[in-house]
Amino acid sequence: MEENTGLSKSTNFRLLANKLGISDKYEKYLEYIFGNKNVSLDNGYVCYEEENEKIAEIIPKDKIVIDVGCSFGLQHLLYKDHKFYVGIQKFVDGHNAWDGFKPMFRTFTDNSIILEGWFRDFAPMLEPFIRGREDQFFGIAYSSIWNAPQANDDDIRWFKRLFPKNYFASETGKRIYYES
Ligand SMILES: C[S@@+](CC[C@H](N)C(=O)[O-])C[C@H]1O[C@@H](n2cnc3c(N)ncnc32)[C@H](O)[C@@H]1O
Questions:
Q1: Which pLDDT does position 23 carry in this prediction?
Q2: Nearest to 165 by CA among 143, 142, 136
Q3: pTM for the full model?
Q4: Thinking of the domain 2-176, which architecture would CATH place it in?
Q5: Which atom, in ligand 1's list, is nearest to the CA of 44?
Q6: Each residue of 108-119: pLDDT tens digit?
């Protein structure tokens, strides 16, 4: 059964969940995700494990991480020793779930949260917390808003404004650099 569901790909994070002693809860969340009829299993996997592992490694532990387009946010496990992890996700393009799908998000660490919605709607609320403390934050936009730059014009402007220096951004297969 596993080979067609994506469950077979979640090896690294499963090992991590095991190490954290949360295997049961984590497996239930995977079953919820991959068993959900709203989740597309044909077009992609719900989380790029290896890429997220590399990104997490380059981010200093004292940062508050804001992960834009985090999908189901399974990668929050990688940030258990960071200051805080905030995932922001709106399903929109049918890549890993259908437009409008609002899943039951879960996190399994006490320093993480996932917010359902557009980044452009949360950004104005985040700004007062980040302004003047930019060094404490780190923005991730991995294979998310830059994959559809026109539709995400506002989101990209906000991302550059909130994360002038500390960021990792990409479109599929290509790292984004911007002048800061
Ligand atoms: C390729 S997927 C997940 C990539 C994820 N960062 C990872 O590493 O596995 C990108 C997700 O970002 C979501 N997304 C795109 N634009 C967004 C926006 N402006 N605000 C919130 N989520 C967005 C898409 O719906 C999609 O589910």
A1: 95
A2: 136
A3: 0.94
A4: 3-Layer(aba) Sandwich (3.40)
A5: 1
A6: 999 999 999 999
